[in-house]
Amino acid sequence: MTQPALAHATEYGRMYSRSSSSAPEVPSITTVIGQEHKDLTGWAGHMAATELSQDSRLAGAVGSASTLKSLARQASSAAERFRDAAAERGDRVHNYAEQVALRELEEPHTADQARETLAGHGETRFADRFDEWWQLYGVKPVAAEVTVWNHTVGYAGTLDLIAEIGGRLCILDFKTKGLTRDGRAKPLSDSVVMQLVAGMQAEEQLLDAAAGTWEPWTYAGQNPVLLGVAISEAEVVPLQAKPEALKSHWHKFWALRQVWGHARVTSSAGPALQPIAPPPAPTPMVS
Question: What's the superkingdom here (predicted)?
Fold first, then answer.
């Protein structure tokens, strides 16, 4: 996936600038959504326990405290390593989807190289399923990787794809998914609706990153269909954000943006607590 030119990693999460020579100003859509706390400790513990139980060295480590400690330390990072590997795979699949769209738009692309990269990681089936879905749904791309900005709320982001499907304008967000035990694509999180509705509420879109030129959001008021698209090795599952759910998810996104803003202010203000000395001893009364 092409790295958005104006996106920057900061201590406050991913942020966007107005040009390639200016400082970051607003959080990304995904940074805002990330303000919602999700407890993953149970999953992390399960991943660690599973890796440790399947380690061939475990039996030989019984009786050796130092060896067991070493194996446990390695297993404790299983969730982190799984997350990083999944993110890298997602980048490869997203890049293939982007390059296919660019090819259809007759713009410079590296679709063949992107497929070869997937093949090099044993991930060709993601591309195969994507191609089947693309043809079945008659996807007609309008623009790929569109960076957008909303001044009113204060955020920016990059949309995976704008396309026409069945004669309707659609905004699409691709999610690379693993498989369930029955071999189906794992379900999408409802948070994808916030991501899509935030994109729909854009006010500007980027024209030139180096020059920092923007134009009004082309698709304002066009009521696009919002699609979260789960891409797996077995199938591609497109899901529409229900129109009646958009208002509540937009309000939730707005609230999370306020959380991000307040968290940034409080963190930059320095420590909120300070030590306090005991009160002075009372003065003895003179009789």
Answer: Bacteria
Mean pLDDT of 180-195: 96
Under 8 Å between Cβ of 57 and 71: yes
How far CA 92 is from CA of 88, 132, 160, 173, 193, in Å, comes to 6, 18, 13, 15, 23
User: Do the Cβ atoms of 159 and 171 come closer than 8 Å?
Assistant: yes
Which whole number is the average pLDDT over 40-65? 68
Does the pTM surpass 0.90? The reply is: no
Task: Indicate whether 276 pLDDT > 70.
Answer: yes
Minimum mean pLDDT range among 29-43, 58-72, 254-268: 58-72
The whole-angstrom separation of Cα 32 and Cα 256 is 6
Domains and CATH numbers, the chain: 7-53+64-265 (3.90.320)
Please compute the mean of the pLDDT values over residues 94-111 and round it to a whole number.
97
DSSP string covering the chain: -PPPTTEEEETTEEEE-SSTTS---EEBHHHHHTTS----HHHHHHHHHHHHHT-TTHHHHTT-HHHHHHHHHHHTTHHHHHHHHHHHHHHHHHHHHHHHHHHHTTS---HHHHHHHHHHTT-HHHHHHHHHHHHHTT-EEEEEEEEEEETTTTEEEEEEEEEEETTEEEEEEEEE--B-TTSPBPPPPTHHHHHHHHHHT--EEEEETTTTEEEE-TTTTS-PEEEEEEE-SS-EEEEEPPGGGHHHHHHHHHHHHHHHHHHHHHHHT--S----PPPPPPPPPP-
User: Is 1 a residue whose pLDDT tops 50?
Assistant: no
pLDDT of residue 283: 83
